[in-house]
Structures are given as C-alpha cells and as structure tokens.
Design a protein that fits this description.
The complex is a heterodimer.
Chain A: H1 2-8, H2 14-21, H3 32-39, E1 45-51, H4 53-56, H5 58-69, E2 84-91, E3 94-105, E4 110-117, E5 123-130, H6 136-140, H7 142-145, H8 153-162, H9 166-169, H10 178-198, H11 205-211
Antiparallel strand pairs in A: 1-2, 2-3, 3-4, 4-5
Chain B: H1 3-13, H2 15-53, E1 57-61, H3 67-74, E2 82-83, H4 84-90, E3 96-109, H5 112-115, E4 118-125, H6 128-131, E5 138-141, E6 151-154, H7 156-162, E7 169-172, E8 177-185, E9 196-199, H8 200-206, E10 212-213, E11 215-220, H9 226-233, E12 239-243, H10 244-287, H11 289-297, H12 302-330, H13 332-342, H14 356-382, H15 386-393
Parallel strand pairs in B: 4-9, 6-8
Antiparallel strand pairs in B: 1-11, 1-12, 2-10, 3-4, 3-11, 5-8, 6-9, 7-8
The chains are: A alpha+beta, B alpha+beta.
Amino acid sequence: MRSALMLLLGLPSALAFSGEARAAVGCTLNDPDRDIRRLFPEATGYRTDFITIDERGGEPLAREIQEKLDDAFDSIFETNDVPYAFYTVLKGTETIGFVHGVNQKGMYGGLQLILATDLEGEILEFYYQKMSSPEVKLFRDKSFTRQFQGLTLADFYDHAFRREGPVAAIRDPSRNSAQDFAATIRGLRKNLILFDAFILGWRHDAHYREVRP
Amino acid sequence: MSLIKLALKNLLRKRIRTALTVCGIAVAVGVLVSLKGFDVGYQNSLQADIDKMGYQLLVTAKGCPYEAATLMLKGGGGLRYMDEAVYARIVSDARIDKITPQLVQTVFDPDKNDGRGGLSLFMGIDPSYLELKPWTHYRSGGWFSAPDAAEVLLGYEAAELEQRVVGDRIFIPGVDEVLTVAGVFERTGTQDDGILFMPLKTVQAMFDLDARLTGIGIKLKDIAQIHAFEEDLYDEPGIQVVSMAQVKGTIMNLVSSARVMTHAIALIAVLVAVIGVVNTVLMSVFERTKEIGVLKALGASRWDIFRVVWLETIVVCVLGGAMGGLLAILATDLVQRAIQRVLPYAPSGDLVLISPALLAAALAGTVAMGLLAGVYPAFRASSTRPVVAIRMGE
C-alpha cells in the first residue's frame, strides 16, 4: 500500500532506489540474517560494527590505505566518513568468520562487492550484491566469482605491485566491460585493505613492505 | 510543617510503592504524549510532502488510483496510460498556473535483489516538471541536451547509490539501453532524491509508448477554483482527477484505524494508572488511620486532612506527568522508527512532534487526573472519626 501511494503521489521511481539509497554511503548487507546464514550455515549469530576512516585515524590512515590500494580515493564517493559495515560471525561465543562489503564505482552504476572471510582474512566467498551491466550474468557466474576463493590481501598486493600470483591469473569474464572487471579487482583489494586495517591490525603489512616497489 | 512537606514526607515513607506508581503514570503519559505528537507530526509531514510535490491535482487514466501500482508490484504490466492529447486539451486552460506531464514506466530487472529479480521504475518528464519544483537545484550538470536525448537526471541519493557523476553512463535493464548522466540534483529531502528521470520523449520512445502519459500534475492560480476545475475535467473521457487533499484524506484514513487502536490502548493505560494512584493513596490512608485520628484529635480539620491526602495524589501525578513528558521526548526517535516500520505510508520529516504546548497540556491533564483521583482517598481520610480511627489503629 505504501508503494501504491507513492505511485499516486507521482513518486514511483523512489521504489527503485529509496530502499537501497539508505545504504548508499556504506555497504550493508541487504538481509544480514539471511545472507550470513547462507555464507556461514553453522553460524548462530553475528555482530555488526560500523567503522569509518575518520574514527580510526583520519587523513593519515586514508593516505596509507590509498598507498596500499595504489590508487586515489574518489573525492565524492570515497570520503573518510563512509561507514564501512563489518559483520563478525559467531558460533556460540566463538568467532568463525567475517562478512564485509564495499561500494565501488562501476562502468554503468555502483557495484556492491561482498566478501566472506575467515579469521585470517582468506576469502571464503565473494559475490556482487548489486551490479548494473549488460554483462552482469558473466560477472555473477560462479565460474568467475569462485576464482577468488582462498585468496588473501597478500595475493592482491602481489597483483598490484608485481603483476603476478593468483589474482593476475583471473581473466575478465566479459567481452566489453573491462572497466567493471578492473573495478571489481580494485573494490576487492580496497575491501581487504580496510578489513586488514580495521579488524586484523595490519596483519598483511610485512608482505606489503616486501612487495611494494 | 507545610502541607506540601507533610505530603512529600508521607510519600517518602513507602518509597518503592510511590516510585512504582509514579512510573505507571509516567509510562501512560509518555505513550499518550507520543501518540499526540505523532498526530501532529504525521499530518505536518504529510502536508509538507504533498506541498513539495508542487501540484494540487493529479490527472490519471481512469481506474482505481491504487490499482495500477498494485498490478505493477505484482509484476504485471498493469500501468494505465492516457493519451497525450488530454494534456494538449487542458494545458491552455486559463485557470492553470503550472502543469506537467509525466510518464512512469517499469522494467523487470532480473539482476535486482541479488539476482532474484525486481522492478525498476523510471520517470519521463519535461522542463515544466522543474517549474513546479522551484526549490530543486542542480548539484552538477544540467537539463537534458535535447527533448529526446539518451540521458538521465539523477536525484541525490540515486547518484550516490549508483556512484554516478555527470558524463557517466548508466545501464537501463530490461530494455538494455545505456544512457548518459546529464545532471545530478541537490538533496531536496523529498522522494525525488531517489528518482531517475529521463526526457519524456525518451521514455515514450524507449518503451513504445508514443504519445502516452501516466499522469499530469496541475497547480492552479487560485486554489478556490479547484472544485470547479475538477468538475470540468469530469467531461474528459478516460481520465480521473485526484486532488492532493483527497490523497491526504486517503492516507489519513489508512492510518486512522491504527490511531484509534493505539489511542484506545493509551487511554486504557491512563485509566489503569489512575486506578493505581487511587489504590496507592488509599492504601496509604488505611495504613495511617491511627495517625489521621491523632491529627484530628489534636485539632486538624477535615479540610486539612483532605488537603494533605489530595496533595499527595497530585504530587504523584505531577511527578509521573513530568517523567512521562521526558520519556516521550527521549523516546521520540524510537517511536518514529517503529511508526515508519508499521505504517503503510510514512512521509519524510519528523513524524513525532512534541511541542512545549503539548507537554504543558499533558502536565495539566495529569494534574487534573490527580485532582480527580485524589478525591475519594482524601474524602475517606477526612471523614474518619478520631476516636474510631485511633481505636482501629491500635
């Protein structure tokens, strides 16, 4: 009925965006209860933390993240006050993994890249929560997303600074959306760097120092 | 010792009982204040939402105005269209101040909602749309380069969600079209912030809806002419006119049943609280029978005893009322979020408005409640005969 009234009021397109728009700045799961149960069937609960770069170090931290990302933040969409959502997945009182997502500017619209990782930061699952592209099916295909399973931030550093390792071996699944493929790699690297900074306490720093030029 | 001090001393003898009674009143008053605040806030927000639409009348194709949306939400292509000729016929009416044609279209996007599919909606507009909304400004970019340009204008939140800036491309699923972002609007605080706009002619061409519209928004020069104007439009075949006043009335009707129920619950809570107060003070009177008898024997008049007990009731009610007001203020956000989840349509803005006048009225109401609730216990206490009271208390 709410939606019907929106139409009557001449505000129909709000349906297309308003629900999601509330989550636009950060990247929260659409349905955390359902999504976490799907990613971690043995989970009994989860805790959600919203963390910003401002809270954890401000501009110096932002610079550090950009160096490790090997790319500058978008001045409009990647500001230091973006609240990043981290879901700590619990089995009883024991932490069994994490789920975290980032927004990434794509070729035809915003991408929402969600990662499920273990306690060491190894990728257990990756999926696009949101993606607009004529070739979206190729990107969402399991044969593509499965290739990221088992990778860590160290692999992304290897790819960024040495152009080698398992990330370098992953091929663009699309024919005309190379920009979306590059955006996916950037978004995942950013996601893992933020996770390393906020949750793991820069666990992959030693590898970063080893591989950076 | 003044009467107020005596009353307070009596109340403090049984602190837990007094505290619980005060809490009971506080909860009842808090709920009532929140509900009254919601009444005011919801109507104000709804009116503001309607005012921000910029028009007073909406012309749509004939049929139930809710039906199209319902069909559409079920996944059918049930949107009703009218001929653009209707717009051409009424646009020159001298009574019209501003008028804008709109074409809403839906497409099924199989990749929406994590690949489970969902509907995406788009709105086709022409420059008159912004004339009806003079408060809308561009954050970047500007109007479409041509009336049939393959371009979009994004509301502030839509642009944030899609991470689009002027010049970026955006993919329209269902029709597999790629459009260019011509502009992004500043935040308006309205539903427009989440909308994706296209040129009217582009939507007509893209969806094979040549010369079709879903609505016409109209603002009249003189609002007093609204009924006469509506009457004249009844002669137009295939269309219906919905005034924004009707829309407001319909929405208020939708929430009225919920309002009646919650008000009834709040009044019951108040009634229970009053009974609680009477019970508490009455118990206190019974426990002090001997003391009251002694007071009377020492010269206290019936009126003195009546006033002390009455005052105790009023003090409990005033404290409860003040705490209730505070509780309502503190819980405003919580209540607002709960209302947004429960109601079928929640306008933007503050849905719960607790004004100083409302708080004063609530406090005055609780004082009146105290005056009323205290009459019987005070009467019982004051009418006790000293000798009987002292004997009973032994």
